[in-house]
Amino acid sequence: MALRQGLTRALGGVAIVALVAGTAACNKGSSDSGTSAGGKNCGYSIGYLGALTGPSANLGVNIEQGAELAIEQYNKKNGKDCITIKKFDSQGSADVAPGLARQLVADKKIIGVVGLPFSSESQAANPILNDAKIPNITPSATNTTLSEKGWTYFHRAVANDSAQGPAAGNYMKSVMKVQKAFVVDDQSAYGVGLADQVKAVLGSAVVGSDKVGGEGKQTDFSATVTKVVASGATALFYGGYYQNAGLFRKQLTAAGWTGALVAGDGVNDKGYIQAAGKEAAEGTILTCPCAPASKAKGSFVTDYKARWNVDAGTYSDVAYDAANIYLEGISKGNTTTEKLNEYLKTVNYTGIANTYKFTDKGELDPTKLIVWAFKVSGGEVVPDQEAPKA
Amino acid sequence: MLLELDNVTLLYGRIQALHGISLTVDEGEIVALIGANGAGKTTTMRAISGLRPVASGSIRFNGEDITRLRADLRVVRGLCQSPEGRGVFPGMSVLDNLDMGAYTRKDRAGIAADLERVLTLFPRLKERAKQAGGTLSGGEQQMLAVGRALMSRPKLLLLDEPSMGLAPMLIQQIFDIITEINQQGTTILLVEQNAQQALSRAHRGYVLETGNIVRSGTGTELLHDPAVKEAYLGVA
Amino acid sequence: MNFSNLFSQFGELTVTGLAQGAIIALFALGYTLVYGVLRLINFAHSEVFTVGAFTAVLTWGAFGLDQDSRTPGLGGFVGYLLIGLLVAAAASAATAVVIELVAYRPLRRRNAPPLAFLITAIGASIAISEFVGVLTHRNNKGVPRLLTQEPVFRIADGRVTNLQILIVVVALAMMIGLDFFINRTRLGRGIRAVSQNPDSAALMGVNKNRVISLVFLLGGLMAGVAAIMYLLKIGNVRYDNGLYLGVEAFSAAVLGGIGNLRGALLGGFVLGVFENYVSGLFGTQWHSVGAFVLLVVLLMFRPTGLLGESLGRARA
After folding, report:
1. Where does this protein have coiled-coil stretches (chain C) (predicted)?
2. Is B71 on the interface with C (CB under 8 A)?
3. Cβ–Cβ < 8 Å for C200, C193
4. Which of A258, A291, C53, C96 could share a disulfide with C216, CB 3.0–4.6 Å?
């Protein structure tokens, strides 16, 4: 017994020595680069509020990893743990998000939020962020109404559905030259918004429409498949998210429907191909109010891959930019939530994916809007072309 | 001794229902257990058949201690009860009900013979063979319950209130059949409110009062016991 | 309302509804069997289905099949189908029996009140589905395409595919087999006896615990077969699919008369077809509204369901 205690103590001693030595080495390294870890404007946090698990986690993980990469790169220059990221896993659920938002605002170190990724959870949680005066930048929630609620702390770093919907419609009309289209949505705020925009652009070319259950709520689409086949449509727009889009596409193909499925950024994910299967997914057109992550400037693509061991996904680049906007603001001394929000009003930041300038409603400046069409080819989502604006 | 209860006690929650019952049944006998409502007659039967666990004491059957044996295994040992309230399976035909009596048996020939015997004892059941148990009259259900118990070819047949709710003519008939079954070689333990009939048919009897055995003797002795006469035979 | 839609697609909606209804019916049998014997809604039955489905997909995966692999020929299809049916039925049945042993039997031994059973059932359901969810990262798992769906013949405007025929035939065959087992065999008679009068059954020598295990086993077998039919039809499975389908299956059981095997079959078909008609007439978003309004209205006029509580008629 005594022997063992002695051994433990000895080992503990070695560990402490190693730790002290390590810390000393670190300090030495950072003082070489000119900024010390205890320098000004450190000790703040940027929050991520959005899905990390749950049925639509992939998109959330893309965003969180983009933001975290930006913060880590910043800390490399400005000292270990200068700015920390705090993650709140909403599971993409509008029921879970408000509670987490309340937890988040209680943490006074958090002065800016990257999120929320989805429109429905944004509608539920944003009032709380706004009341607490926490600036937030969503890199992906695209429902148009989010900027119309008078939330002065809300910002959107991508085009909203009023840009994406028409772009998808225009792509179907001008590029695909669709004569007969069917439109389906999943009854989510996001899905309905997009589908209605597409219907408006396509007009009389829409030969039928239907509404289905959202993620996890419906798996048998046979009634809708019947309608699509009977309508003679050659293309189908689906307003919704990737898992059910995949299930739906698979059942359409199994029933012998060979038309093309077109969908928005909520489906622009590898998970769609996993759900549909490569063969059924082939040829699907996916729009995104973003430029291809692979077309991002600088070393982002390789840095991301090196850090996370996966390719940068949809919105990883925008989330990276959003985090960097905050970091630039903080480094310029905007270290309260109010000051940081004022900073966002005037910012004109050139990032790796886009140049960011916000309107007074928090939307991107109309000249900065980008919508791309992607295509599923050989089991991969590859950039096709920028969607026509009309 | 075929059945021996030694100082059996039984609890319903905190209420003690049996306060140390001791009784015996010998092979070939009809033994009657009489008593007023709530005296513990049915409870004693449930203890013997295994539907209720006993708190203390022991039950021996055919030389084996069965105090803690599961109810369905007691049937295999040759102990079969026709429960109070008849307990026929209402959704099954009369024949299926009778087949249930032979559930633990494998000897097809023997089962067929016993079925014949039961249908001879109870011609009414033969007429109603395909009818669902739940659609029979009270008397017919009683016949079915007794017939079903016989189908297990028990060493000891436990009959709980076989005359309950029956017209006087039917009561006579059912006791005739009980006597007949006994004469064919089945030992019977009988619980009855109709003490007159029960004691006049039984070799021996026990009188139960609030969970205790207060008297015992041959059927004739008890029939002529003044206290029994007053309490259970309606004679002043 | 879109009547022309409903009429022009009536045949197709009927056929696809029957196929979905057949799956629901097989699934519903487990609820009805357990209810018939224990007067308990075994909510964890939805997870019995889920476990069977994932086991089959994993087994096919072990044979090198995934959803992107080529569709095998007829021989391969039959072989993989039988393997799938076998492992799914075995896994589902084992899950059901284990749930009974671990969750319900200790409660029965202690004479627990009905509420304890209900909460245990819900708890077991959530615990297992969440466990599967965590293991599978809550992702859809794609199912190998074992069969190319092709129309075999037409009824009016409706195309009837090989898969739809398979699903309905398998469901009917399982149903007939189960019906025979319950009504014509000694063990089946034991099940009916326990469901109609548990005490009398014990006095006839029926081992109640063994009957209860058997009932869970049979329900599990049916759920496993339902899971395979579901996989072939839907092409994907996720940890919470059982929960949603389970609500429909349970409703189908009540619709047909809970405790009644034929009622479960009828309830499944009625529910599947009716949901499709509502989808055709009002739009798919209304299908659950339609189905559950039907359930509520029907129960108002026939509180014991379409065919009544047959296994359970005993207590009346």
Report:
1. none
2. yes
3. yes
4. C96
Assign residue C130 the CATH number of its domain. Answer: 1.10.3470
What pLDDT score does C1 carry? 67
Which of A54, A213, A230 faces C9 most closely, judged by CB atoms? A230
Q: Could you tell me the sign of the dihedral formed by the alpha carbons of B219, B223, B228, B233, in that order?
A: positive
Q: Cis peptide leading into B73, omega within 30 of 0?
A: no
The domain total for chain C is: 1
Interface contact flag, B72 C310, Cβ < 8 Å: no
Residue of C nearest to B158 (CA): C203
Which numeric CATH code is attached to A162-288+372-386? 3.40.50.2300
Domain that holds residue C30: 3-137+153-315
Return the residue of A nearest to C139 by Cα. A55
Q: Where are the domains of chain B?
A: 89-151
* Test mutation, C7, C23, C67, chain A, max A CBs within 10 A: C67
Residues of chain C in contact with residue A57, where contact means CB-CB under 8 angstroms, are: 137-138
Q: Do the two domains A44-159+295-358 and A162-288+372-386 of this chain adopt the same fold?
A: yes
Assigned fold of A44-159+295-358: Rossmann fold (3.40.50)
Beta bridge partner(s), residue A376: A381
Q: What is the pLDDT of residues A216-234, one digit of tens each?
A: 788 999 999 999 999 999 9
Of B72, B87, B90, the CB nearest to C205: B72
Contact C44, C99 (CB under 8 A): yes
Q: Which residues of chain A have pLDDT under 50?
A: 1-39
Tally of CA atoms within 13 A in the half-sphere of A137 that contains its CB = 33
Digit-coded pLDDT (tens) for C229-239: 999 999 999 99
Nearest beta carbon to residue B72 from set C202, C311, C313: C202
Q: Where are the alpha helices (DSSP H) in A134-239?
A: 161-170, 189-202, 222-231
| Contact between residue B133 and residue B144 where contact means Cβ atoms under 8 Å apart | yes
ipTM above threshold 0.95: no
- Transcribe A27-46 into DSSP letters: HHHHHHHT--TT-TT-SEEE
